[in-house]
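Lay summary. Proteins are chains of building blocks that fold into shapes, and those shapes determine what they do. In this project we predict the shape from the chain. Here is one chain we studied, written as its sequence of building blocks.
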Amino acid sequence: MITIVTPVFNGEKFIESCLQTVIAQHCSDVEHWIIDGGSTDNTLSIVKNYADRYPHIRWISEADRGQSDAMNKGIQLAKGEILSFLNVDDYYESNVLNQVAELFKTLPEPSFVVGNCQIWNDHNQIIDINKPTKLRLLDLVVGINVNPYPCNPCAYFYHRSLHDQIGNYAIDDHHAMDLDFILRAVQVAHIKHVDQIWGNYRRIKGTKTFIAMADGSSDRRVRQLLKKYRQNLTPIEQIECLYWKLWAQFKSLYLRAIRKLFHIILNDPAR
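And here is the predicted shape, written in a compact code that computers can read:
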């Protein structure tokens, strides 16, 4: 069974489409847990209405300590051996859950499997496609300007037993708990990247993630995590990490110099 966990608080704008995206998967062996943090809008009434008609939808509603706390509650409630998190404003591509269920039959436990993720803006435009092809710890801690990490949990799935080895989500981390989990997971799990679009992530103005990216706090937290987990590299890996960091810095300086040169040439009054 696959367990999908959706943490939500006052998400009436998107909760119905979130429920529908799992229903539209037509996966017979799935449960969808809605972990509501005590919403004061119409979120819960929408959830109850759907849960009355679709037995795979389960829910709880109680105060929590934030998103990580809600995610950990979902882990404890999960009956499926395969786990995924679907934020209320994100959605899957069609037939992803059935593909995942079949794929996991061939994989050792615990496995961590990542697909590609489309990133959308407020104008319903795709602004990027996250393709995290390199998923070793070494690859990820070099820096996001070298190798991107999985940007959203709607595009990755893993064995729930992975939490028995590495623990749950950091309850006091409200911005980078996904990355912190990934950096722990790749050290013990069988890792696989599937070069298909599995998830769709809406990067919406006014959301917690958007604000953190805009004010730089998200970037600072990511850099802190990467620095922390670099300490887990072997001496040889640390040397390789330093090489790739220097290469990325050189590449960045080189591209900036080229752009500046072209700007000078194009704006030369003598031409």
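What the prediction tells us: The chain has two domains: 2-233, 234-271.
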